[in-house]
Design a protein that fits this description.
With about 180 residues, the protein is mostly helical. Helices cover about 75% and strands about 0% of the residues. It has a single domain, classed as Tetracycline Repressor, domain 2 (Orthogonal Bundle), CATH 1.10.357.10.
Length: about 180
């Protein structure tokens, strides 16, 4: 893909993310996205032939961003034991990758089109496999991962009964416990 086409796709995805954050993915239209990014609908259709392709690309980009953050966290951990688990916990605790409204809107869209979540299922399966293969206590590693996922979903859904400060303390405790897993 040419540099200009890649930049154009990124601009469209940025605009789609803003629109989804404002109106939800269910109300996202190609016209609204084209207007938001200052592009003709034809230019948008050149990059994304339909709304489903646009939503899938948005989700793919969120996953790619998460994978990049995770890889950076793993490199920073060097040869520490349980690098995968610790990197997952740190990436969830320390990085806000997108407006929670974007995640909510993508979840809503996926409830109507479950096939959109196929890449998410694959990424989670890869995390699960690594966690269970790299730990002497795979069940504890998976439980820590799932606890972190729960904290993130509380945050995304804005239903957490605890403060942001308490959430940070909970993540810190998960990270401390992850040091006990060999």
């Amino acid at each position: 893909m040419s540099e200009s086409r890649h930049k154009s796709r990124d601009n469209i995805l940025d605009a789609a993310q803003r629109v989804a954050g404002k109106v939800g993915a269910g109300n996202l239209t190609l016209d609204k996205v084209a207007c938001e990014c200052g592009m003709s609908k034809g230019g948008l259709l050149y990059n994304f032939p339909n709304k489903d392709a646009l939503l899938a690309a948005m989700l793919d980009r969120l996953l790619e961003q998460h994978q990049q953050i995770l890889a950076t966290e793993e490199r920073m951990l060097g040869d520490e034991p349980n690098r995968c688990l610790k990197a997952i916990l740190r990436s969830m605790a320390c990085h806000q990758m997108a407006d929670p409204e974007v995640y909510l809107s993508l979840l809503a869209a996926a409830s109507q089109q479950p096939e959109l979540l196929a890449p998410v299922r694959e990424a989670l399966a890869a995390h699960y496999e690594r966690l269970t293969n790299e730990s002497s206590d795979p069940q504890l590693a998976v439980l820590l991962w799932l606890a972190a996922e729960g904290l993130m979903f509380h945050d995304i859904l804005n239903i957490a009964p605890y403060s942001k400060s308490e959430k940070n303390k909970l993540f810190q405790r998960l990270f401390e416990i992850s040091g006990e897993v060999s």
